[in-house]
From TrEMBL:
Pfam family, one: DUF3176
Transmembrane segments annotated in the record for this chain: 714-735, 773-794, 806-827, 869-889, 1201-1226
Keywords: Membrane, Transmembrane, Transmembrane helix
InterPro entries from the UniProt entry: DUF3176, GRDP-like
Name recorded for this polypeptide: Uncharacterized protein
Compositionally biased residues, Polar residues: 1-15
Region span, Disordered: 1-45, 595-617
Superkingdom classification of source: Eukaryota
Originating organism: Ramalina farinacea
Amino acid sequence: MPLLKRSSNVPTSAKNPLPTPPKDESPPPAYTSQASDSASAEPPDITAAFSNLNLNSTKQPTPDQCLAHLKVLETFHQLREDVATRDGLFGIRDSFLPAFKDEGQRAQRLMQIREKRWAVYVTKAAQRFEKWWALSVQPNANPLTLDQMEDPLTYNFTRRQNEDDRWHADRLPPIDVLMVWHAYHLNPRDYLEDCLRFGKMDTWKAGFPWAEINSCVDNDTFEYTATEPAVDFWKKVTGLAWDSLTDDQDANVPCPMCQRPVEIPWTGWTNERQWQVGLHDILRGESAATGFADKAMRAQCNGCRTSLTGETLKLAKFRRDVEALKDFTIPMPGSVLNMDGLPDKAVHGIRHLASFPDRLLLKDIDLQRRIKDATNPAFSANDMKSVRTAIERSLVLGDGVRIANGSRTKRLTKEERIAIRRMMSHYWGNSSPFALDLVGAVIRQGSFIEKMHAIDWIHSPAAVSTMKRLITKYTRYMTIIAQHPNKVAVPTLDVDLAWHTHQLSPQSYYTYTVDKTDKFIDHDDKIDETALSDSFEWTSKTYQKMYKELYSECTCWYCEAIRESHSSSLNSLSRAFKSSSTTGIDDQLANLHSASEHTTGPHISAHNAIKADTLNGRTQREQALQRKLERDYQRVCHRAKKQGRNPPPSRDEYMHNYAYMGMYPIYMPYYAPYMGDPPIGILQSHQIAGCFYTHDVGTRPSVGTGNSNDIPEWHGWLSPAVLAGAIVVIHLNHINSSTMNVYSKDNLSYAYNPVIANDRTPWRASLWRRLPWLGFGALLGVLAGIAAAIAILVLSDEQPVKSWSLQPTVCLAIVTAITNILLHFALTEGVNVAWWKRATDENTEVADLHRYWSYGNSLLAAMTSGRHINMVAVACIFVAIGPVNGPLLQRASRVSLARFQQTTNVRINIAQELPNGYTGFLSGRGLDVGLLAPAFTQTVQSENNQAVINVTAAGCTGQCNTTIPGAGFAINCTVSTMPYALTYETPAPGEDFNTSQEAIANGTLSFGSYMEWTWQAPGIINLGVQYKNDPACDGELQIRNCTMTAAVVDYPVIINGNKSTIELLPGSSMFDDKVINQTDVALTSTSGPTTLGGLGKALSNTYNSEAHLRFAAAVSYELITTGATANRYAVIAENSTLGSGTASYKNCDLSFTDPSNDLVQAVRSLMFRTAIAAANPSLSADSQYVTAQETTTLPIYESHYLYLGLAILVTSLGWLAMLPIFAGWWHVGRTVTMSPVETGNAFRAPMLASSDGNAEIDNLLKEVGTRPIRYGAVATGGEYSRLELHEPRYVQKPWGGQTFGG
């Protein structure tokens, strides 16, 4: 039966012959089908619940919306069944099925074939959806920009939806596109952010068009039948076929390099070979199928020959998004919503935390270059890991954080780290323009759709009651989330239906969840089963505790075992306190598995979850969980038997260096076991007293007699094995007579020095007695050195340089040197223990002892140990690397500049009242100012030149912000208007202009600025402004009059203590000056000095100006100006034409801007400069102390903890590598060293034959330390001399070419 039909009419709801009341108001039934009490009862009408659905928009989901959702889900289910079982679709045939003896394997492979058809279909549906989304859904929408993110109106999600924005049945898309859109809604945060970024918020607010879709879904067959206009509209807009199954076009993808369209087949699983098992039990198609919907997708552009893969498409998406950010300031995906899922609204002065990736990609030029290289499609080796590496390099090794935030620190905040991860998560498995892979979203929803089909609520006669009940349960579920924001709440399947339905109305869902939880709750369907199990158990307990009802109703053993774990405590309590609510829960638990078909029933709790706040990663607790569930299952079985029920089925039955710090050179100590191996010489083969050393000396645990002429070359420094060949003669059972002659009593008197038995040292192996205190003390010293380095960097971080008499770098160099010395000393002690411990072990070879010594003393030997590597070699290598911590720690501390703020008291001289007669002199009958005072004249010149104001500010050494009381003005302004008319009447031909017209006779004073001081009001400066602000010929003049009265005011100022200057706070005005009190300025004489008259004279000379505009007949409009101010504020229209004379215009469209604020500021600036100049330091009123906020810039030490961490890591590796070589010290019976005397004693050399065999080195030296000794040739009485250590009187210097015996 075809699923998609075309009809000009929307189908009506045809009734089944099974009538039942339209709405069942009886108590909600259980979620299992109940047998009818009467076999003869008339079957119910299963379509009655859908006959009259009210699908208007509501704040919460309604039963009718849930029922409409069930209809749509059933349609999706039928679509999947039809696609999956259509043999040959996309070239995938059931006949590809190999021959299997096992029917289970055959069924599994057949399921894989059909699932592949569905996956290809969904991939094609996602491509069709992308085209529909771009061309049909608000196609002219403007994307969100960074500037718009600053506007609160951008996030007005609660605006009432306009009718024009709503959906119509004639605009609905095909069923496959509708299915993708449905899954898109069920990722609410991604959907919201995409709608914001794409500018499609009207679509977001409109939500899923329930009524329109419901009208197109048949109540009986659940077929989706669109109207003819909808089909025509789809074809016209997208150019695609309505039915995806009849659309034979290949996938069309633009080439990332040349943008040419590249056609790619949908799948390569189109032959039988692809479905055969290859290497590692993997189907061949996994690597051989290269279609667009395949895992190994590959194609090549026919134009530029660029290879297209999944990685190149993801890189192309990232590159496009970065270019859109740079060119159009469109934010990157994942940078709009914060951690709570809410838009990161702007707060003045505070950075957007979520948009940190945008700032980083916009401002870091080096990162932009690396991103461009990493996303270049010409380099096939590039992938998203290359992008991640580029970003990590900018954040960790570069100045990305500092550049992005415009701050001094390079540290990432938690929110900024999450913002980077959130942005990158949109690209790892997603090459579409959307925030998530919509193909995966649809596939994941398939499980939920199958469960809805299996539970078959859509055919329940009590469907309405069921929907009411699950909505109530959903509301309770959201309450649990709101009350436990740090827990993972897991919904049951019934809750999830209501939850999904609510998400399909995004505006209502957003408002509801934000109001209830202060977060926009997301829907995560990718949580693993282990995390779900624990969280489901917690959710069940919480629900049961809050509402005294059972949370899950399921028929599998798994959920009953979970419920046993959280209800056992209630069962125990119920035996003592048998409440009615607990009894009800017991009854519900008892009936869970009463149905006969429990093994095939739907698993209501088996669904994915959400994370209300934070979610930990995958935990490693599967085995513990399995054991716990098994115990709970056994208890359930026991209880079932006790209650006379059959036990529930088991689960199986159920189914990754500069030597400078700032500007200072550093001292870089280096300490390692060896820079090289000092060569000692070559031991020639020779016979020694009937004993010999051959190659076997290093390979076998025993030594024999005989001769050898093939002794290898040995290099080293006092190797125990070499020492044994030089001073040690091993006593064997066969010693010839010549040997006895050499070692006679006459020749070796020391051989007969007996040691008293009572002086012998006993063997005492002990855990505490033999503890290598020096070695462990050195290891503790290393830890102390690490702690000291941490303390130095922490204590010096952001501290002024002057606060440290000894630079942190010097301290770190000292600490590093001591730490490395202790580390090497500990290695030496550890090698001592390891060598002697190895010597006590069974099956030890001489070569083993040599290697322990050699690896512990030679880095080269340790690094070339090969298959003989041991813990001593590992420790030596790591200790040798240890001195790298020196330059790392030096890099960990740098000097930078920082600003500090503190409160300080500043003394400054400023006059609160100007001295009488300070500014000028009156003269003439008009009592006008005729001359400025000399001191004031200098002040006026400084003001005109905008010279800095020098001042002595004791107590301020940096930049000080404060307010200072001084002579100023209290201002009061009024605003008014006055009409003007410049339009003239054109005379009739042959007549003259009517000169009585206003435009000709008077014109208008289009601009006037006046500063005025009069002797009648000696304490006042008047400002008058009149200006024409409209280019029109007729209109109103703007008039502003301000009276400025002498007063004491608080000036907001900035004092620069370093330069001894002062200035008014930028951006402040006279209106910001706080008036303390008005001052009385008296005129003492009508001819003589004046206090403010000179000020007024200077201001009027500078700023008084007029511009008079009138119509002058034949020369058109005439403009006459005086003063410079009018020219400064004149605005000439673009189409004005300059007349023939100076300052003459042919048009009346000249206008002016308001000069009043600038003129007031000029009065204030001159008055402030005058108050500073007029101050008398000897007057207490003029010498003022004020409290200021001082900001100073000082050099500080800045710690970089990355280098500290690396230094600690290097040191810790050496520290940890040494612990194993100390193991076994308790097996050694004395304090041991690697002294050649002590090892020679252990080999029982003849010179030490009579010494204490267990003597410690100090006692051994007391016994034999004074004996003379020399190394050379010793005559044996035979053919060859021996080369050994002996008493000097028996030793001769070997000659060149001499050979030796053994």
